[in-house]
Amino acid sequence: MSSGLSHLTHLECARCGRQHDAQVLQGRCDCGGTLLARYDLSGIDLSSLRGRDPGMWRYRELLPVAGDPVSLGEPETPLLYMRALSERWGVETWMKDDGSLPSGTFKARGAAAGVSRALELGVKGIAMPTAGNAGGAWALYCARAGIELTVVMARSAPASNRIEAEVAGATVELVDGSIADAGRRAKEIAAERGAFFAGTFFEPYRLEGKKSAWLEVLDRAGESSAPGEQRMELPRTLVIPVGGGVAAVAAAKAVAEIAALGWVDDEPPLLVGVQAEDCAPIVRAFEQGHEDVAAWEQPTTTIAAGLRVPAPAEGALVLDRVRASGGSMLAVAERDIRLAVHHLAASEGIFACPEGAATVAAADRLARDGRLEGPVILYNTGSGTKYVDVLG
Length: 392
What we know:
- By secondary structure, the protein is an alpha/beta fold.
- The chain has twelve helices and 13 strands.
């Protein structure tokens, strides 16, 4: 791989706008805001990017890693035309399927960028909380990078995620409660051991890795997914699972950067964020017109473990990006999530994770209400094979 292609210039606080040095690994701004990577967008030529092999690192100019990344061969993932759903809803519908990434989930994108940048900046140890899949993905990439990792997760997290992290050599600590409790303990461990705390929105670069899914989508707009397949135009609606909310903010950032580069000139897509009814703090804030998000206090038992985030660190940022797009936030019932997993497998041949299947349930509601604008892209964030023990 070529090195030195990144156009990263600095970090910028999403809350107060203050600029920060990108050559120092930092968590959040002094004001408490999330730090976002900013790039010099001049001189980036789409045609030169398209001349490279497909995959996450095709877009090196718009990713933060200066040298060779810590990579497990992150491929460009399929963008699949959903024939049954398109007929059912009457709008062109596609699915971005990240189940083929290392670790089987989109968390590999964030881990690849986050771990690569941490290694470049001299980090020796990382502590992080996880609702499930992130811990396993970061464990694999930290193993490859030679970085010590401590993962903290709730006892209610899927056993497969705990085992994956342990097999990859991470130290795993279980706590009672939710990911919020895991976050508090991970911060303590980071302070005790001099490790970097890589919680959601407390580390600037996992968002950049997750942005690559949408660079792939927008890059492919107007192309066919395979010979004889439906041609996809620029999407009008992106339907995205929302736990901590990184994926939704990453999608908005990708759209903004692509627009600034002049690669697309159509109206930017609507963002639709999806949560489980059992844990829907951002949906509640959206529906009540609030600018910030209060913690969800009721028990969270949804099988979509990635959506069990009762106190998202940047709920306000997610709300801002969704509203700015003209989109919405929806909560879907547990029964509908399970039905969507089975429907996708039986009618489209896609064994989606529950988080990805939740996007089908949300889009179905929008379609019934006459509010689903196409073309639509549903985001399946991982493989359903990790969930076979709870989907029966």
